[in-house]
Batch of 2 targets.
Target 1
Amino acid sequence: MNRIDQTFTSLASANRKALVAYLTAGDPDFDTSLQILQTACASGVDVLELGVPFSDPTCDGPIIQVASDRALKAGMSLSKTIRLAAELRRTVQTPIVLFSYYNPLFKYGLERVAKEISEAGVDGLLVVDLPPEEAGPLTTALTGKEIHLIRLAAPTTKPDRIRMLADGAGGFLYLITRLGVTGTGGLDYADVAKHAAAVKAVCPHPVCLGFGISTGADARALAPVADGLIVGSALVRVIAQAPADSDLPALVAAKIRELREGMDA
Amino acid sequence: MKSSTYTYPDKSGHFGCYGGRYVGETLMSALMDLETAWNEAKNDPAFMGEFRSMLKNYAGRPTPLDFAERLSNHIGGARIYLKREDCAHTGAHKINNVVGQGLLARRMGKRSVIAETGAGQHGVATATIAARFGMSCKVFMGAEDVRRQAPNVLRMRLLGAEVVPVTSGTSTLKDAMNEALRYWVAEVENTFYIIGTVSGPHPYPAMVRDLQRVIGDEARQQMLDQVGRLPDLLVACVGGGSNAMGLFYPFLDDPCAMLGAEAAGEGLNTPHHAASITGGSPGALHGAMTYLLQNDEGQIQEAWSISAGLDYPGVGPEHALLHDLGRVRYDGVTDLEAVEAFKLLCKFEGIIPALESSHALAAAIREAAKRPKDQAILVCVSGRGDKDLDHITAYMKAHNL
Ligand SMILES: Cc1ncc(COP(=O)(O)O)c(C=O)c1O
């Protein structure tokens, strides 16, 4: 059974919600990134989203844009991201979702991506700029692999399309909480709750909320309305804002505990 | 008459394996709404009538077809005819597309428009139409281009637009487009994004082509009326590729050769160029599958050109298809060749072309020299060069020209 499915099944039976953490691979560099990821997985993260740095991250706000730049400047790439995932998998059982724009995957070769990430122990793939209409070739490449293609739904998605997205989703459905790109804040809890309930009603998979969730208070307010919460920019910002020579893994772990406590409250 | 052999894009917005919609889910419903609205509008005689009337009375169409006699004699080969988009209101072909999308925005009830711009011509055109229609307007422009194209920044501000300098990435057109897309995702419910070329997600490439085809429709008729025959060769510069698609499209079923001039910057054998087709490989950027400048791991590379309007690491997806089909040939023109063609047009014809258009002229001159005098080459002068004067003066000084 895919690690993502195992995780959601056991969380559901314990009546707990999933904390999904996004971190940019290789931010601020390969070795530090590996330590941060290992510590994050030991500090209450249920699913890890590992971001492949990209030169033109049009779906991301400034925090993740800058993280992507930092990682690229430190020499990060898709092949090194896959190596990072493989190294992480040696010590960690947390499900890993590779989070990418389509171009790095396409250029690398979809068959090759499928083979290498599956060997690395990756459990899911989420491609932010690849709607189902364009996903045929990637779906074909993933056939026979234990890898879920995670789909996204947005506040602008109309009901018919939500049903289509939900039916074809694998692992969990990533429900975008608000308009705009990734970043912190801008959430209207009541709006999000209403939208989440409507989507959960038609989705046969766990539904996780992402975009804007950044504090323990957000986590406390939104955990009850979904199966999991996705936090990205708020974690990446910890890395960006830390003074030189900080213990980055410890700082990220502290932020994760804040979110975890909010969710479990 | 157009035969049915060329019917791209297909229903899903693909030009063969190119085009499509590579965007975040948040934009999908806006793109589907736009596609529906455009399909209705283009089949509505009242809408198309208003479009034609504005092109005539506001944009100053038809633009002339002009025989470049002294230039042709100087080269001593094929005769060169100029399609004079530099004569259109705001000084470039960009106005054609913007009049159409502006009318569509109004029809869809949108009160604010956004645009990306490189050379500033598309930004100026968008600011112009926003003023005309009383809409609010934001133009995203790379900080580097804000510097290179200062006169156009001033024009946009005078026209009431807000110019947003973009400092992410390489601070040029690609980053302006990234930022426009990010803004659009946040404001998608009230904002109409006027993309300036035949790129972006479906339906933009086809819609912009259909709005720009007036260039080729007019030129084809003008060649028949004034010269009594079709040209042997069509030439246009290719940034995103809108003036080229506009010129080429109505001739696709004619026995005319076609040449797209890409910016070869300091040379195709250097890393400093913007030739996505002749020097790139397929990939997905800004909503479409097409040719891109990128490294082996799919990171987009910086484009380079003396011309801000060609300084883009991608190209419209229909050009990618026309290249693969062998219907259009694409070739590089260096900064230096473009500047030399610029000087020749000034000297022999009394026309100051845009640096973008100078790439097409250089390619046309190169071809004319190889062809006999009884052949005709039609080249699109996509815009006028007033905006480039400071930049070109500095270039000539630095290169002792
Ligand atoms: C005068 C002129 N020509 C050409 C271009 C390139 O655009 P396209 O390839 O879409 O015609 C521009 C873009 O800014 C321009 O201003």
Note: Residues 248-264 of chain A form the longest helix (17 residues).
Target 2
Amino acid sequence: MTPKASEGSRELSVQKIKDGTVIDHISAGYALAVLQILGITGREGDILLVAMNMHSKRLDKKDLIKIEGRELTTEEINRIALVAPKATINIIRSFKVHHKQRIKIPDEIEGIVNCANPSCITNNERGITSSFTVTQRNPVTLRCTYCKQITSHNQIIDQLLGKS
Amino acid sequence: MTFNVKNIISIADLADKDILTILDRADKMERLARGGKQSRLLEGRILATLFYEPSTRTRLSFESAMLRLGGSTVSVAQVGSSSVAKGESLADTIRTVESYSDIIVLRHPQEGAAQWAAEVASVPIINAGDGAGRHPTQTLLDLATIRKSQGKLEGLNVAVLGDLRFGRTVHSLSYAITRFTDKLYCVAPEGLELPPEIVMDLQGQDKEVIQTGDLQGILPNLDVLYVTRIQKERFPSPADYERVRGQYVIDLSLLEHAKPTLDILHPLPRVDEIAPAVDKTPHARYFTQVFNGLVVRMAVLDLLMEAQKA
Ligand SMILES: [Zn+2]
């Protein structure tokens, strides 16, 4: 048996979902952050499987989430990208992978997060959308197009988790 | 020579050749800047100065530059207190002001404001300070002063002295001058050194950054000494300030070690970093910087208007 298949079979031991989304290869320790970004509390009543710090070929360790009854939108996938840049998204229909989506961090990001610099024009002017160039991909670090200041990975996560 | 620049937002946006084009044009503006024959280069054009915080020197320099070129100016000197902008967004104010003008000079306390204005405006925007300390015409006038006096920018030994940590004109100049030179001397009191990220940026571009406390030791090598003010507020106690201040005063006895062609620059206003006796020596360039500010702003106005016509 190839290592990939054995990895797969180990995942299969986790319950399958019928319709929904599997988010795989989340950076280890970030599954709960991803859930919070998606606004999932576990009290929705649908099946929700969360596995953390699993062994992985591609990453040293990884987290995995299976969400029954919800297909993620592109906007949601982009938000996840900032926290878990190597995640893969599988949309499941009738127990089968309907399509896969590898997260791709674009070179430029508009909106989603705010510039960390409080005196940046984007935090003080109506009708302006935050805009960044990605200076580092893993972990994601952003440079504001306007004030040129860096918004760090931790600042991004704090914002997406509603801590600032 | 093509000058395809639409706005002057930051020095980093300008290619080396654009900087040199501006400096060349500035040289040609000198005669007009001294008065005499009235220029009609920008006749019929209107410059709007839109200042959200006061900076009388900069505003006067731009307005004088426009008048010397035969243009006219309108001015909103204290936007905060005028009805133009009570609670109005910068974008809306820009859209209003551009209907009255052909070019806008903006000073604004928020970082990135000038770039935002440029995205909104259909007329050229010149950044006259936007909180981040980006103030490109200041850096251009420093370069113009150095080039005019030394005859070149390439290969010069330039030292920056004083508050290198918070002094933002120094940051901008450090990046700009090392496009043309391969090393930079930095002399600063402890705690006010050039920020490490700037040092790393410069080293990443294969520039040698020589950080030293020994001004007298490096002085004989220098072609240019750029002095900035060390502010009392930066120090934990008045005693700390007094101790440091004395170490870095430029006076005649220090200058005995200097090359006869050394140029001393200072963005003004100065307090007592440079002894008044130095003013009369051929080293003093800080008063000509003011005049160079005028010619550089004339050059920028003329080039931007010309680029827009093309
Ligand atoms: Zn910003």
Note: Chain B has a mean pLDDT of 92.
